[in-house]
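Task card 7
Instruction: Convert sequence to structure tokens.
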Amino acid sequence: MNQKKIVMSGVRPTGLPHLGNWAGAFKNWVDLQEDYQCYYSIVDWHALTSEYQNTKNIRPDVRNVLLDMLGVGIDPERSVVFLQSEIKEIAELFLLFAMFTPLGWLERVPTFKEQQKELKEKDLNTIGFLGYPLLQTIDIIIVRANIVPVGEDQVSHLELAREIVRRFNNLYGNYFPEPIEFLTPIPKLPGLDGRKMSKSYDNTICLSDSAETVDKKIRPMKTDTRRMRRSDPGVPDDCPAFDFHKCFSSEEERKEIVAGCTTASIGCIDCKKILIKNLNNLLDPFRERRKKYESMPVEDILESGIKKTREVAKQTIAEARELMKI
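Output:
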């Protein structure tokens, strides 16, 4: 019997998970657990890279992230769900790998400078922020994962992970598999302001938002700036709202919206009402499952996943130390 390939991915507990997390990660996670051995981590150490000055919400956010993961369909009977900071071997392997990872490799990661520019209000000139792609690499290889589901914006991190793994294997012996990316079919979901949907930008629709909240968030959402008046025609491909339709509306609905928008026969509110309906149809079963888990001791699910991950991590660190003669 062939052993299943190993999938690993993680999510930061920095606020409530949102539609971008669903489109860029969770949807793939749910699908992959059918055919792979999956490890899904709530990466609370990664939360510190940008939130080290404001840590009071990390613990409650861990619970909220877990509830949303279970709500969207992550099955703890088929996937291992765990908390990153409970696997101390990750920190040890990170330290060992930091000894031979060139500084220049980390400095050239595109998101390093992009995030510094976007989050100017935060002091991100820290070793932790510079080194988070290395910590991501360790998250992956501590369970010797083969596959990492990511969005296009994370491909450069996987390229770096492969370089780092290759360097270890060349220096000490061929041990770690080089992880490959499994790209999400939705490369980038815009936020309510047209930028990438991100908790850092406060432009999200949360998976746990009520139907009323979704309505309130979508109605004032940015649209094509050409449509200053109801009678002005628009260009759907230049509209953030239509980017949502590409992800969450049917082909027939999209055709009707394109025809209506380009001829000004429908207004932006008409377009958004369709989107609101479709988003709530998607989110309703998530909300229902989440509500069920809210009354359950979900921390037990994390404890079980931590135990399983720790067993693998202990073996990994022992064999890596042996290869490094430590």
